[in-house]
Amino acid sequence: MPENQQKLIHTFSALADIGQEVAHKFNFHEMIRTSFHLLLGSLAIMRGGIARYSRFGHELNFLAVRGLGDDFPVSASISLEDEREFLSAGMSPIELSQAKMLLFFQHYQPVIEKKGIELIVPMIVHDELVGMVMLGEKASGEPFSSADRAIVQAMARHIGVGIYQRNLMAQLERKAEENKRMYDEMRLTYADTVKSFAAAIDYKDKYTEGHSVRVGKYSELIAAELGWSDERVEGVAVAGYLHDVGKLTVEKNIINSPRRINAKETAELNKHPSVGYEILLPIHHPYSDIPLAAKYHHERLDGRGYPDGLKDEEIPYIAKIVNLADSFDAMTTNRPYKARRPAHEVVEDLQRNSGKQFAPELVTALCGAILKEMTGETKERKFRKLLGREYMEAEGIIDLLKGALNGLAATGPLTLVAAE
Amino acid sequence: MNFDIDVRHDGETAIVYANEYLNKITGERIERECKRRLDAGCSTLMVSFRDTEIVNSIGISILLGVIDAAANSNAKVVFTDVNDDTGLLFESLGLTRHADIRKA
């Protein structure tokens, strides 16, 4: 094979390899190292370096060097004027004699000349300086021909694209992190707003102070016991916090009546789920079904609830959870017309109404979560904080809960299908 | 494909045997091995291409690294058992100015 043909095949193979390298390597530094080998090897260039340009620090940072010695700077500053010069020159390789007008060169002239750099190739992609290639002499000792310069320019363009892609990826990663931070902040703001709403709802009802907050927490504990994801557990908690938002429109004297309210007042009060739904519907909640939880939290599995008398499968699952949490809180707190019920009565009531008012698997989850806390299976003290230590440690409760769980398991198998 | 590098040592001369295809993986091993020998005081570094059919750009770059390291250690580099195509390539790229070439 003639010498020139051999050389040509060798050089074009390198050009093809570098394109493949940039397109398919996911490890950036590996891509740079291999591309650098290909660039030096294509024309047998004795020494050189590839630098990435940081627009923020106006700095060239060397990613790969060969034969430049330990005293060659790992980074070099570039003035804005230099950057403009490089951009106006495009990607044409700059010979050392031409580079002398650059401030950059004037600053680094001794080291560049000492290391025998002959060509400087700015890497420009989409009118943006992304880096620079510096090349020393060829092994043959011959000067770079115009064909050599064209090859170098083409290869540098490929490497530049690789650097540009990496920069874009880094920008995307930064943007994604920023978005996540903003999203977390928004979620915190949303959570604070929800808690403020809950406080406003509870403020209106002096007899059930803290009810919405407790329903939120019980809903959260039930969902967590079901093994739901953190995000879904948060959503259920929000549904609990806001379930009574419709009460904001109910007359205060009805809500705070110290006696049993009459039929007309009851009808007025019973509008609060539908009103709550109307209030919550236009809001773009980060969790699904929040308005439905408010609307249907008084529905019962047996169809005897309100406002629509829905039955079992017709009731949104989130509303079933809030319903149980709401009823549990009603049973375990003092009301103007009714004292809180003893723990054993509450457990019996839950068991009795499982499958009628409450979904059996949710009663199982609630009883299971309480039992875990009481037996020390979990270090959490959430129920204890909400119900009080004495109430939780009532005699025989652990056995009662275990019995309830056995009974529930026999009558209503735990259904976790709806968990995800 | 075998990626192991065979090395023989005879006094101040080391012979490093390149594999059938001199690419980045085998090339960098050769470069490391050569530098290790130079650090150990080797004054003549022979790279045998007895089993090598193709040397690509990465291979050339690595051989230039060996030449550079040898020059810094005042050592001599010899490429031996070079086939005709590889010999032609070394010649056209100017490697013959920095290393002795011994054809197969």
What is the topology?
The complex is a heterodimer of chains A (420) and B (104).
Chain A: H1 3-24, H2 28-43, E1 48-54, E2 59-66, E3 75-77, H3 80-89, E4 94-95, H4 96-99, H5 103-114, E5 119-125, E6 128-135, H6 146-204, H7 211-225, H8 230-242, H9 252-255, H10 263-269, H11 272-280, H12 290-296, H13 317-332, H14 343-353, H15 360-374, H16 382-387, H17 389-392, H18 397-411
Antiparallel strand pairs in A: 1-2, 1-6, 2-3, 4-5, 5-6
Helix pairs in contact in A: 1-2, 1-6, 2-6, 7-8, 7-13, 7-15, 8-12, 11-12, 12-13, 14-18, 15-18
Chain B: E1 6-10, E2 13-17, E3 21-22, H1 24-39, E4 44-48, E5 54-55, H2 57-72, E6 76-82, H3 84-93, E7 100-103
Parallel strand pairs in B: 2-4, 3-5, 4-6, 6-7
Antiparallel strand pairs in B: 1-2
Helix pairs in contact in B: 1-2
Question: Mind explaining what this structure looks like?
Answer:
- The complex is a heterodimer of chains A (420) and B (104).
- Chain A has 420 residues and is an alpha+beta fold.
- Chain A has helices at residues 3-24, 28-43, 80-89, 96-99, 103-114, 146-204, 211-225, 230-242, 252-255, 263-269, 272-280, 290-296, 317-332, 343-353, 360-374, 382-387, 389-392, 397-411, and strands spanning 48-54, 59-66, 75-77, 94-95, 119-125, 128-135.
- Chain A has a six-stranded antiparallel beta sheet.
- In chain A, β1 (48-54) and β2 form a beta hairpin.
- The longest helix of chain A is centred in the middle third of the chain and has 59 residues, at 146-204.
- Chain A is elongated and about 105 Å long.
- Chain A starts with a helix and ends in a 9-residue tail after the last helix.
- Chain B has 104 residues and is α/β, with parallel strands linked by helices.
- Helices cover 40% and strands 29% of the residues of chain B.
- Chain B is built from three helices and seven strands.
- Chain B has helices spanning 24-39, 57-72, 84-93; strands at 6-10, 13-17, 21-22, 44-48, 54-55, 76-82, 100-103.
- In chain B, the strands form two sheets. Chain B has a five-stranded mixed beta sheet. A two-stranded parallel sheet of chain B has the order 3-5.
- The radius of gyration of chain B is 12 Å and the shape is globular.
- The mean pLDDT of chain B is 87.
